[in-house]
Design a protein that fits this description.
GO molecular function: hydrolase activity
InterPro entries: ATC_hydrolase-like (IPR026002)
Order of helices and strands: HHHEEHHHEEE
CATH topology: Muramoyl-pentapeptide Carboxypeptidase, domain 2
CATH class: Alpha Beta
Keywords: Hydrolase
Mean pLDDT: 95
Strand content: 5-15%
Organism: Clostridium aciditolerans
Number of strands: 5
Protein name: L-2-amino-thiazoline-4-carboxylic acid hydrolase
CATH architecture: 2-Layer Sandwich
Number of helices: 6
Largest sheet: 3 strands, antiparallel
Shape: globular
């Protein structure tokens, strides 16, 4: 089904495999539970996944003696960004995402869009304001990440 090759860059390959696994699991929930309840279950799963990631990153932050803020998030972020590409003229814009690439190949960008909601959860957990006015899963040519520290 997917066009993943052993010679592909390892981080991108793993991101695509993760995106494909997510798709099969999400699709199964939606098929078994119906559109509304299935998507609700997928969102709940993504929230729980985000919580597990946040707890791990918080633990690392504590080990390093760091506060919980946007600067710390950048230091303890668990998802490598190696295979994602940014616009060199506008670093807020991610022009290539291996996960989106997989969802587009499978024709399921709408299901992939639910996964993308995780970014909002993660940034909020590190006291940041996050906006994504453009998203590849919505048909835009990039994902625009506008992230800034939350005003106190």
């Amino acid at each position: 089904m997917s066009k993943i090759r052993s010679t592909d860059e390892p981080v991108g390959r793993m991101a695509k495999l993760m995106a494909e696994l997510y798709y099969f699991m999400a699709k199964e929930m939606i098929d078994r539970l119906g559109e509304e309840r299935g998507k609700e279950a997928v969102r709940a799963s993504i929230s729980k996944f985000a919580e597990a990631r946040i707890n791990s990153m918080y633990e690392e932050a504590r080990e390093k003696g760091l506060g919980i803020n946007l600067e710390t998030y950048v230091k303890v972020r668990d998802m490598p960004g190696i295979s994602w590409e940014r616009d060199p003229n506008n670093p807020e814009d991610i022009t290539y995402c291996p996960m989106h690439d997989m969802w587009k190949e499978l024709g399921v960008e709408d299901i992939g869009a639910i996964y993308c909601e995780i970014d909002d959860i993660l940034y909020k957990a590190f006291n940041a304001e996050f906006e994504r006015p453009l998203c590849k899963t919505s048909g835009d040519n990039c994902c625009r990440f506008i992230v800034k520290p939350k005003d106190k």
